[in-house]
Amino acid sequence: MSCLAPLRALSQESCLLSPVDLNERAKEATLIVEAEVIHQESYWNATHQNIYTRQTLQIFKILKGSAPETITVITEGGRVGAAMHVFTGTLQLKNKDQGIFFLVPAQSKMLPAGRSAVDFMVYSSSQGFIRYNSTNQQAVEPFKTYSNITTELYPVLRRVTPNFKNLRPNPAVKIINPATGTGINKAQGNQRTKATPAISSFTPDTLTAGTGSLLTIRGSGFGSSRGTGSVQFRNADNGGASFIDITNADYIFWTDNEIQVRIPGKNSSNNTPGSGDIQVTNDSGLSVVSTQALVIEYAVSQVLYDETLYSPRLVNANEQGGYTFQFSSNFDQNNPAKQAFTRALNTWSCHTGINWNIGNSSPLTAVAEDNVNLVCFDETGELPRGILARCISRYAGCGSEIADQWRVAEMDVIFSQTTRWNYSINSPQSTQVDFETVTLHEMGHGHQLNHVIKPGTVMHYAITRGQEGRRLNARTDVAGGQFTMTQNVISNQCGPGRMIPQPVANCTSSTDELLFTAEITSNTEVQTTWSISSGNLVNYFVLERSKDAVTWQELNTVSPSPTTDSYQYPDVTPLPGISYYRLKVINPDQTFSYSPIVRIMREVPSGFAIAPNPVTENTLWLQYITQDSGQMQIYLYDVVGRLHRTYNRAYQPNNDLIDLDITDLRPGTYILVYDDGRQIHREKFTRL
């Protein structure tokens, strides 16, 4: 068996956390307890601005202060009905979680209406909870792993708070036998007669999380059924320092020699599976860790509702195709911060087509569910101690069942005001945190991406002071963003309409050496041109085109020329209406990068166009150009007049794309007839 060492050092900022020393936590906490979560309930605060979750803790030990046997602790975020708030970099708990809690009195703004009881909150949020793993007897906090609860963690805690008061035994913590150094467990003798699990292989060795990817594990001794067994993955949120569970719904099947699981984008504690070895524990409590390492390229956010995970969508929240962010007055007065934030926003938009823009400043100074996507510095104590920045995603569910569809209704972004930031385009000093790098990471969470364990990528779980990371990685950041966009551009069943891809016009190259452009040169041609520095080694170029900035088609492959650094390629069969172009640059080592996306708009006189035509895949796209919104009836006939399909679709202003499923439609010529209530139009297409 092998063990993956944590990939971080204490100088790194884990999920944009600045380390809070154990001595400080012990000094500032008014109550320190070893406890277990036995009940949870989410609620709106008294002003109905934010959702919080109230946990009832059953106490095993009191390390500082005094308390009854059960207390109430409040954490940020949670779900009430069809509303859900998720705060990045913030502690989230679930029932049966246990460990050491560093507590202070809860702020009044966190309390529900009419609440008068004394509640607590966790000092420094996720750093104020040392989580126990009862399986391996380890304890984990964001910047440290304790190999054993009783032999390593307890002695460390006694140095800062020596007076432990036992209220009741904790059955999850094993007593260490001084003679052998092992845990005393009455079932230990019986377990020796059980088969020890072994992992021989797993496939595939590279996949993505939150996308439906399946992992098959082969070996022996897993047990004929799962029972209390589990498959655990390295925690991407702490660089793999601990293992995390997956939800029950993600187990597909379990036999003695084969297990199949789905890789979720998160678990019930809001942690994300990351790259590294995997651990299998059978129903007898015996575990094995793989010698093979799993690679997770990117992870997509998911919403957990009634033990099932759903993929939320980004939508047309501002009726201009996406989301508008507004700077608070304190942020608006900081021009370097505004410029750095705008550069980061544009980087995502240029490479994934996400529709984000910046509007007028706002008089608001505190974040809340108020239909304002606020960007602000923390002036009102919103950020817990040690958090540099965070993005809050506020979700809303809709449909015949709440879980039919979840969307991002609003986003807020908060930055620490006391951090020594570098706002400039120059590299940060060794003691500075790069503001653009942090913004790019937090807006990745806004793009609905979770952490990965992959240094050099924007969504890597940690950054270092003095580090600059302003380029999106093609395999991880861009690919993950493009995956979320495939969901965002599909017509919605309810709520605001789908997102309309809109890469910004003022894009900069993904590398300093590459310049890529596209322009309409005639009614039947789009000319693409690019140039690259002569010192940049390239294996070949791939020119790509898309109808929606999500699904890309290869137009041509071009080999580098020894005599020129400039290239051209004409697209003589351009798509009608809106289309998108980008250049993929393949390096000799097979790594690659993308140019920013270029958007082209060709006139569609009828206001209605089919793309592609002929169609070879299972989705036909209609581009309907209008300044109105409404419902459209669409009928699909063959050339002899037989009706094959009927669709009802909502349409939006500003060149809406409408997707039609034509799975199992036989090859041939067909006619689409649409009726938007004002006119009827017919268009012919060919199915190959």
From TrEMBL:
Record domain IPT/TIG: where: 197-287
Any coiled-coil regions, as ranges: none
Keyword Ribonucleoprotein: no
Domain Peptidase M10 metallopeptidase per the UniProt entry, residue ranges: 394-472
GO cellular component annotations of the record: extracellular matrix
GO biological process assignments: proteolysis
Domain of life: Bacteria
MF term (GO), any: zinc ion binding
Keyword annotations of the record: Hydrolase, Metal-binding, Protease, Zinc
NCBIfam families (alphabetical): Por_Secre_tail (TIGR04183)
Protein's name in the database: T9SS type A sorting domain-containing protein
Source organism phylogeny: Bacteria, Pseudomonadati, Bacteroidota, Cytophagia, Cytophagales
